[in-house]
Specification:
alpha/beta; Rossmann fold; 2 domains; 5-stranded parallel beta sheet; 16 helices; 19 strands; 19% strand; binds flavin mononucleotide
Length: 465
Amino acid sequence: MNLGGKKILLGVSGGIAAYKSCELLRLLQKKGAEVRVCMTEAATQFVAPLTFASLSKCPVYLKNGAVEARPFQHIDFPRWADMYLVVPATANVIGKFVYGIADDPVSLCFMSCTGPRFIAPAMNVAMFNSPAVKRNLETLRSFENTFVMDSPAGELACGEVGKGRLMEPAEIVEYLEASDAILNETVTLSETKGPVKSCSAQSPAAQFLQETALQDLPAFAHSEATSKRSEPIPQSGEATPSVPRVLITAGRTEEAIDPVRYISNRSSGKTAVAIAATFLANGFDVSVVAGPMEAEFPGAVHVTKIRSACDMHKAVLEQMKNAEVLVHCAAVADYRPKVAATEKIKDSRSQLVLELEPNPNILRDSVAQKRPGQVIIGFALETDHFKEHAAEKLKKSGADALLLNAPVAANSGFGFDEVRYTLIRANSRNAQNAAEVEIPEMKMGSKIDLAQEIVDFSIDKLKNV
Ligand SMILES: Cc1cc2nc3c(=O)[nH]c(=O)nc-3n(C[C@H](O)[C@H](O)[C@H](O)COP(=O)(O)O)c2cc1C
């Protein structure tokens, strides 16, 4: 969305981050937008209304009954605006939005605004994780025309660390500029002033991210996911497809012991889903070769279902010629039973020894088949000596990068939305065998953060082919 000429109503509620709204206002003006401001009473304790009035060159709409200039600002302001931003949104105003309470300028404008409403929650991590706020944000996301931005993790004003920070003003501007894919592209903003418009036509990825369990981090995914591609991405291969294509391996594999038993692992597939949705949101055509998994892919993803590592090996080597990027995210069993019994193995009460043999190395075999310009990213899940093992794996495989992932922290890794990871890039004049490996520090992040890093890396690589 081009912000030039847009009329933006900025609602400021009483959080410590209210001062950042001043910077946001200035950035929006620099983009050519006209901004007016409404504030809760609590917000005026953090920033003087005079500051906003001076910056916006317009009286600020303050608490009911204390109208400075216009008698019907609660209707007037939202009707004037092409969109409404609430930055920061306190836990309190979020609750009011959800329950239809409209007893201050910010919640009143929310209720009477019929255009797009962008909400940037900001609060202490304990408040952010409270059941009430979680539920209210979830409900808010289901409202028409309402977009809840991410509240990233980091150091909070109160000194604690966790989710609940306000997105930086520059990121909010980027988010808005990238929000064409979020807004219904068939409805122009000027049409939003009449009856309530439907905003149901989000991009499939944005919609998916909004619905999925990964949704603790949704708006970040929207903003990042929809913002990155300003330049066309060069394609590798002969027949140039109209959009770049990515093939992702996903889920776990099952190695049959007999018709009813197998060897497997605890991969939920959530990381692959985050990666698929983020590629999708960045305009890629997304295919996956997926073993069994709990998480579900957005409808626009082409899924080939397999069970064993050998099935996955075959499917990947067949399909990789149709992709510019290959991401090996599946948790593939290293070994399989040498012989899978055709009948259920009976309980004989005596010791049973299973002989295992190695599965094919899908990453290495795909690198051996790599086309010039194709980008291949492997995954390494390590529980000890992370860096040494990952560096070794990257060198041996010849991949362009390796996502090192260590599911050892509490509440991270398998089945959780947060993970400890780092992306290790091959220093690749000749990545096939000369990987000089620099290993960035591992960090804790959401699977969406991790996915975005992989997408950014892939796009950079494709651009530099
Ligand atoms: C120093 C201080 C900082 C606060 N920061 C936040 C905050 O970042 N987010 C939040 O939801 N509430 C915060 N609060 C609590 C709100 O100010 C309080 O819930 C208030 O009633 C919100 O009013 P409003 O939603 O009408 O603006 C803070 C309170 C104080 C005293």
